Amino acid sequence: MKAAIFLSTILVLTLFSIPCQVQEYRVGEGDVLKISVYDNPDLEKRVRVSGEGAIVLPLIGEVSVGDLTVSAVTRKITDLLADGYLINPHVSVFVEEFRSKKAIILGEVNRPGLYEISGDITFLELVSKAKGFTKTAGNRAVIKRRLKPGQETPEIIRIDLKDFVERGDTSVNVGVEDGDSIYIKKARLYYVSGEVRNPDAYKWEHTMTIIKAITYASGFTAKASPRNVKIIRRVDGEEKVLLRAKMDEPVLPDDVIVVPESFF
Fold this sequence. Notes:
Layout: H1 2-16, E1 32-37, E2 45-48, E3 54-57, E4 61-64, H2 70-82, E5 91-97, E6 102-107, E7 113-116, H3 123-129, E8 137-144, E9 156-160, H4 161-167, E10 181-186, E11 189-194, E12 200-203, H5 210-216, E13 230-235, E14 238-242, E15 256-259
Parallel strand pairs: 6-10, 11-15
Antiparallel strand pairs: 1-2, 1-5, 3-4, 6-7, 8-9, 8-10, 11-12, 13-14, 13-15
C-alpha cells in the first residue's frame, strides 16, 4: 500500500538525515548534572536540579541554573570558582539524565501522549518515540510552541512531510522544544473495494484518477469487470452513484470505488 510505503520511507530517512540545528539544551527541574573541575577531583559532583532550578556545589554553595543552556551553566560555575577560589578553573558540565522537558504529540501516531524530551530531539525522533505514524496519517503536521516572554501569540510551525520524502528537505525536521504541542493530521482517504487485489483505504492525492487508484490497489483480479466500475460519492450530504465510470475519472476524497465481478 502506497501510504504504508510513504510512512516507512519517512522513518528510514530519519535515521540517515542530517539533524536540523537545535537550540542548545536548557537545564530544568529534575535534570541530573555531572560537574567536573580539571585537576580538582574533590569538586566533582553529580547533582539533581531542584524544583527552584538550583544545584549545590562545594565552595560556591547554591547555584541557580534553571533555564540556562549547558554552556551557560559551565560559564557560570567557572566564574564563581574563579572569584576567590581557584585560578583559571576548567569546568565541564554533562547532563546525565534529562527529566525536565516535555512535549505532547497527538493525532495520527500509534502512541499519542506526553513525552519527556531527552536533550536535543527532532520532530521525527519524537514520532519514532510515539511508535511511528498510523496507517491513516497525512502528510501534514502542526507544532504549537509554548508562549514565550514578549510574545503575544505562540509560534505555529506547519510541516509538510512530502517535502522531506520527495525532496530530502531536512528543514522540516525541526527541533522539539519544552512545552511543544504537536498534532499529526489525518490523511484524506478514498476507498477501493470489490475485484481488486488489495481492497483498502488509500491516501488521496490531487491527481488521483480511477486508473491510478486501481493501480495502487495492485490492479484488477481475474474476475473483475473494468467496464462496470462505479463510484459512490457524497454530494451535498446525499449519496450519489456514478455508473460505468471512465478510467480517467477524477477521484475525490471519501469516494468509494467499487469494482464488480464479471459474469461473462
